[in-house]
Design brief:
Order of helices and strands: HHHHEEHHHEEHHHHHHHHH
Shape: globular
Strand content: under 5%
Structural class: mainly alpha
Oligomer: single chain
Distance between the termini: 89 Å
Strand order of the largest sheet: 1-2
């Protein structure tokens, strides 16, 4: 593998770097304003209503009106809060989401306006750029954890604890889903991964002319990343840290005004960030899709940024679609999906990609015996997945009669195969009535 050439990024003068940084910052703010209205309108259509219509043409200035309202809203702090951490937590959530865009290629070589200077529409690149993205993404979770701890509220603390469990579960699955991309591209630099996807796919030794996007070549990795990125951003159906029906507002229950606006901004910027990472690593980056990719100059210059943003908005639509159609997961369902499914599948798929890459480099695919053995192993694997599981044994009468729905004085939900007794919804005879309650005879009298 040839070493990464960083001369394209180190040759820019300071004012070009400043202009690119300002461009990324303004782009994210405008994208956030767009995403808020876009989400409310799409969810409105899904629920057979119009969505925002009052502020601005067709309601498109609704998010700007919401931002102005939060600027002038009363900003309070609980008396028992840790003041330093309480004020620092919103910035720990918002700043990493902005920083991650430093290594994301938005377009190819462009000309700086009003000058003749050529530069890549990417702030910088690193030999370990994807690891930098994962590290920055994990820092944003600490803002949520510290916000829940510093508020001094039980609901906020529970939201922060849920967020830490969510970070551990889905960060592992997300990181493992990207290992296959490293193996395929032989690089961790984002610009090189984008260019590696421009190599056309080969089918039976013939060139198809279709760019080899990793969303097609590494489909399991792409699906695992899509699920993990929803869990990483605390979006429905994985919005357990801010479950309104259980925790009032979760980790940001005690926040208001601009501090709450920072969390609000961080959530929508994180949506754009993880979508941009998916576009860069799996959907060809700023290059046009097939068959338009065959047209000369279709993604040259600033047109590359148009294709890049179109793909990002498409993935944001997936976020909105999931929120409008799926209910929130239970906590046990959420943890089971992460630990029992996504992580084992990621490990197995990574091993398979490593073996296939080694086989292709060694020329194993030219051996018919190897292809026959590989086919038999795949058939056996699918057969074990489809028919290998056994049905759970039905619960016996002894198990169902011994089930106590009030074990320890608290209601306990039945497990699989167990049934609630007929009088499970009333107090047990041996328990005295609770203080302040009236018995049946007192009610009749």
């Amino acid at each position: 593998m040839t070493p990464l050439d960083l001369s394209l990024f180190g040759a820019d003068p300071w004012w070009v770097v400043l202009l690119k940084g300002l461009f990324v910052f303004v782009l994210l703010l405008l994208l956030t304003l767009f995403n808020i209205v876009f989400e409310r309108k799409v969810v409105g259509r899904m629920q057979h209503r119009k969505g925002p219509t009052m502020n601005g043409p067709f309601g498109w200035l609704q998010s700007l009106a919401d931002g102005m309202k939060l600027m002038f809203k009363e900003d309070f702090m609980p008396a028992g809060a840790d003041r330093l951490v309480f004020n620092l937590a919103p910035f720990l959530s918002a700043v990493p989401a902005l920083t991650a865009w430093a290594v994301i290629p938005i377009a190819g070589p462009v000309t700086v306006p009003f000058t003749d200077r050529q530069t890549n529409l990417q702030l910088t690149d690193l030999p370990m750029a994807v690891l930098f993205l994962l590290a920055i993404a994990s820092i944003g979770i600490y803002g949520i954890v510290l916000a829940g701890w510093s508020s001094g509220s039980t609901y906020s603390l529970l939201g922060g604890l849920r967020s830490s469990a969510q970070m551990i579960s889905y960060e592992i699955a997300m990181g493992l889903s990207l290992v296959a991309v490293f193996l395929k591209a032989q690089s961790m630099a984002t610009s090189e991964i984008v260019e590696a996807q421009q190599q056309t796919m080969q089918v039976l030794g013939t060139d198809t002319g279709i760019p080899g996007w990793y969303a097609l070549l590494l489909l399991p990795s792409f699906v695992i990343y899509l699920i993990s990125m929803v869990g990483e951003t605390n979006r429905a159906p994985f919005d357990l840290p801010e479950a309104e029906g259980e925790l009032v507002g979760g980790f940001h229950t005690e926040y208001s005004g601009m501090r709450f606006a920072m969390f609000f901004l961080a959530e929508y910027i994180n949506m754009a960030t993880v979508s941009a990472i998916a576009v860069t690593l799996f959907l060809g980056g700023w290059h046009a899709p097939w068959p338009l990719s065959g047209i000369e100059g279709i993604d040259a210059g600033y047109l590359g940024a148009v294709w890049f943003l179109a793909k990002v908005v498409l993935l944001i639509f997936v976020f909105v679609w999931l929120r409008g159609t799926l209910p929130r997961f239970r906590y046990d369902q959420f943890m089971k999906l992460g630990w029992k499914w996504l992580i084992p599948l990621s490990l197995g798929w990574t091993m398979a990609v490593a073996v296939l890459e080694r086989a292709q480099a060694a020329g194993w695919f030219s051996n018919r015996a190897f292809l026959l053995a590989a086919g038999l192993l795949l058939v056996l694997a699918f057969a074990l997945i489809l028919f290998g599981g056994r049905e759970p044994e039905p619960a016996t009468e002894e198990d169902s009669t011994d089930f106590d729905p009030f074990a320890g004085g608290y209601p306990v939900p039945p497990q699989r195969g167990q049934q609630l007794p007929e009088m499970a919804g009333v107090l047990r005879p041996e328990e005295p009535p609770r203080p302040g309650t009236r018995t049946g005879e007192e009610e009749r009298s």
